[in-house]
Amino acid sequence: MKIPVDKVKWMYETMVKSRYYEDTMVEAYSEGKKPVFNIGAGPVPGEMHLSTGQEPAAVGICAHLTKNDTVTSPHRPHHHAIAKGVDLKKMTAEMYGKVTGLGKGKGGHMHLFDPEVKFSCGGIIAAGIPHAVGAALAAKKKGKDWVAVAFIGEGAANAGGFHESLNLAAVWKLPLIVVVEDNAYGISVSKRNSTAVESNDKRAAAYGIAGAYVRNNDPIEMYRVSEAAVKRARSGQGPSIIEIETHRHLGHFQGDPELYRDTEEVPNLRKIDPILKVRELLQLEGIATAKELEDLEEKVKKEVDEAFAYARDSEYPKPEDALNDVY
């Protein structure tokens, strides 16, 4: 396998944590929104974009990052946040709109921000890439070997912010890595109907930078490709684009009727679940027994359950505090 055992175990644990977190959020978000879907009802209001199935994109590269490295995320951010080490209790409380949240309940699901681990949701489409470029520029000017990673969906690679940011990063040889999560749909529009190139890593050639494509939602290959990209960035060799073929098991947002998808698409995707693949690998390689993995999964579930309990039990902000902590 040639990947440190502790890294593979961390990747598995983090993918399980992310998946269970999203499964739990499905239930929490659904409260009060049935039988008629009402986006403003229930304890978790607003739009909700979940990352079930896309975990390899986050763990494969975050396995190589430290607290000093920056990560920006779009509107589907939970797997990135969990892999970067964002405080789970504060993150959940933020989505519940509670005063104990990362942004004191003012930001919500699409505006998560944790300066302790240099993580932020930079906005929808390609809005987070310029922020990552700024972080990469700061690292270079300070003479640090820090890396900035911008996660985007494949549809965002058609936005101006993607091209403008990569051009500057290439000119200045910044330690930037753009990870494109190709889940096949920009909302409800398929990639084949919106994008002229087969895969967005090919766009790297236009900027004279490195590009790589990871097929089959493979977390192990994502780890290997990311390792090379992070080494290039830290050694001053400039930016990279990584696109990973990943699989969104849920809709673009919770409540999405998904009329654009084939009825068998999701069941077929779940048969090639990357979490099950890594679980099997850990046992085949003799890294962990089934019992050890079950114990690890129980530990992770307890952590997630405690985060949701913390969020539910926390207080809402007072109306008079609406303008506090606003900059």
Automatic annotation (TrEMBL):
Molecular function in Gene Ontology: pyruvate dehydrogenase (acetyl-transferring) activity
Any one Gene Ontology BP term: pyruvate decarboxylation to acetyl-CoA
Domain (Dehydrogenase E1 component) ranges: 46-320
Keyword tags: Oxidoreductase, Pyruvate, Thiamine pyrophosphate
Entry cofactors: thiamine diphosphate
Gene3D superfamilies noted in UniProt: 3.40.50.970
Pfam families: E1_dh
Protein name per UniProt: Pyruvate dehydrogenase (Acetyl-transferring) E1 component subunit alpha
Organism name: Peribacillus deserti
